[in-house]
């Protein structure tokens, strides 16, 4: 009877496989928080009134959402194009010279430490099952070619996450009068960046203190410099 290997809790298995994506979403949300708050602090430093601050916050939220979403979609689409090109090249090489591709695969597993006999057997079985997929994974690290739908989801998701972050200073500009707005924005940004840093560190299994210090440092510095610029250009 074989001994079963204990499985990690589901949330930690998810974090281990998707921690990079989780950090990306939180980084985008933080960007929405910090960029919009910085713009508002700059206008506040210049003495802008309630209506101007609200307009600036709304404009920054919409422009940021479209810009970040569009950039993420473009990057995901470029990645998909690259994957398709690699797939076409590999398919052609497999058709033209399958023996050479099999030797490359055997060499790959030899470099991983397998014996020649085992490496040849593994290569033979994988090439017999799905030669294109195994070549894409071993040569390019491509496990699955992105779909058009996934590139759209990446863009829309990034835009929405950025908007959620930007919504925090936007709501401050809506509910607080301009004389209280700067302090309210700073407080809200500190609280929201603390929350996102804790969640990001937990999901990504990174060091909480360093993550928090980086986020707060960038956020506070951005707001302080923006406020100073507003004072100087007034």
UniProtKB/TrEMBL annotation:
Entry GO CC = endomembrane system
What compartments host this protein? Endomembrane system
Q: Which residues cross the membrane?
A: none
Q: How does it sit in the membrane?
A: Multi-pass membrane protein
Secretion signal, residue range per the UniProt entry: none
GO MF annotations for this entry? manganese ion transmembrane transporter activity
Q: Name one Pfam family in it.
A: VIT1
* Entry-linked InterPro entries: Ccc1_fam
Protein name (database record): VIT family
């Amino acid at each position: 009877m074989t001994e079963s290997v204990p499985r990690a809790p589901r949330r930690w298995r998810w974090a281990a496989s998707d921690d990079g994506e989780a950090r990306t979403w939180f980084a985008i949300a933080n960007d929405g928080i910090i960029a919009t708050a910085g713009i508002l602090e700059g206008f506040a430093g210049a003495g802008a009134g309630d209506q101007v601050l609200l307009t600036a916050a709304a404009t920054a939220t919409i422009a940021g959402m479209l810009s970040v979403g569009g950039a993420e979609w473009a990057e995901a689409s470029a990645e998909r194009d690259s994957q398709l090109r690699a797939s076409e090249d590999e398919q052609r090489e497999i058709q033209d010279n399958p023996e050479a591709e099999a030797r490359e695969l055997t060499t790959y597993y030899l470099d991983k430490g397998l014996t020649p006999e085992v490496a040849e057997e593994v290569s033979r079985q994988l090439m017999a099952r799905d030669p294109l997929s195994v070549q894409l994974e071993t040569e390019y690290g491509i496990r699955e070619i992105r779909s058009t739908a996934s590139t759209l989801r990446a863009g829309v998701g990034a835009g929405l996450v950025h908007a959620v972050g930007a919504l925090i200073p936007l709501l401050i500009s809506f509910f607080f009068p301009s004389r209280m707005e700067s302090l309210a924005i700073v407080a809200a940004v500190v609280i929201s960046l603390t929350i996102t840093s804790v969640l990001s560190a937990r999901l990504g299994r990174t060091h909480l203190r360093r993550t928090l210090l980086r986020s707060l440092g960038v956020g506070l510095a951005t707001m302080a410099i923006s406020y100073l610029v507003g004072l100087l250009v007034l």
